[in-house]
Amino acid sequence: xxxxxxxxxxxxxxxxxxxxxxxxxxxxxxxxxxxxxxxxxxxxxxxxxxxxxxxxxxxxxxxxxxxxxxxxxxxxxxxxxxxxxxxxxxxxxxxxxxxxxxxxxxxxxxxxxxxxxxxxxxxxxxxxxxxxxxxxxxxxxxxxxxxxxxxxxxxxxxxxxxxxxxxxxxxxxxxxxxxxxxxxxxxxxxxxxxxxxxxxxxxxxxxxxxxxxxxxxxxxxxxxxxxxxxxxxxxxxxxxxxxxxxxxxxxxxxxxxxxxxxxxxxxxxxxxxxxxxxxxxxxxxxxxxxxxxxxxxxxxxxxxxxxxxxxxxxxxxxxxxxxxxxxxxxxxxxxxxxxxxxxxxxxxxxxxxx
Length: 354
Known about the structure:
Blueprint: H1 14-23, H2 33-45, E1 56-62, H3 77-87, H4 92-100, E2 103-110, E3 121-123, H5 141-160, E4 165-171, H6 176-187, H7 203-225, H8 235-242, H9 245-259, E5 263-266, H10 269-281, E6 289-291, H11 300-306, H12 323-327, H13 329-341
Parallel strand pairs: 1-2, 1-4, 2-3, 4-5, 5-6
């Protein structure tokens, strides 16, 4: 895996940022979450006058071998069908990107269908879906490295266009299954408490999903005992064994964006699992992440809590695609505008009363 050079923002400027926030013509702390968000953005950009430029959204598609075990209510064909729908502008992600001015890149990194001739889809396919992690690793080390590099290259393309704030979404049937396992292993939370309904499983379906994922984790632990390669006794092994191509590509994108000191908007359960995976590799990447919302998938809040992440919204959404994060963008804009457009007590000739 490539090495990233990710640095925590320089703390030297923090006091000056706080002084500016406290001297805006408002009661101290009265803009609440906007103030802490403004602090984060100013710290990332190392300025008292932050700016948002050319927001981009990466929509990453990939299929999962574990889908063959009936852990999702939706068949894998929905992945490629939705990817094509996105090119027609008909998805939720399209609507929100248009509304908030994001440039949308639709990227096939592992869909189990030939989309190479579909206009509007970037072909970065690593394979036609991952292997079934009930029986074997979802991907090889080489595939893992390629997914990380693909995510990094996509970010480089956005950065070259002037982007300094990135949003990431996914399309991949059954990807709540690897997300639940990552949460279980990295968070040391009982697996059953990490598993939910996904796209709409009923009670028997959820029970079946639990049985499959328990068996997969047991097989993984047995497999790992027999592997001598040192890197496979680190978070790398968990990410590689269970991850989807769209998920590992997202991790590569998050890490490269943090390396380039870009803001990273994190969406729902799956993208939060990717953020958790990214911070297992590079804890300092967390400083660059803005968590858009807490969804209704079982365990999402607990996974956010593992990173002490405070989401901006809780709208009961569980669509994926990055839609929850995109909905939070106006709040991010408000935090930036607060720093640039509000007057201070001195200039407004208002007595500072605290």
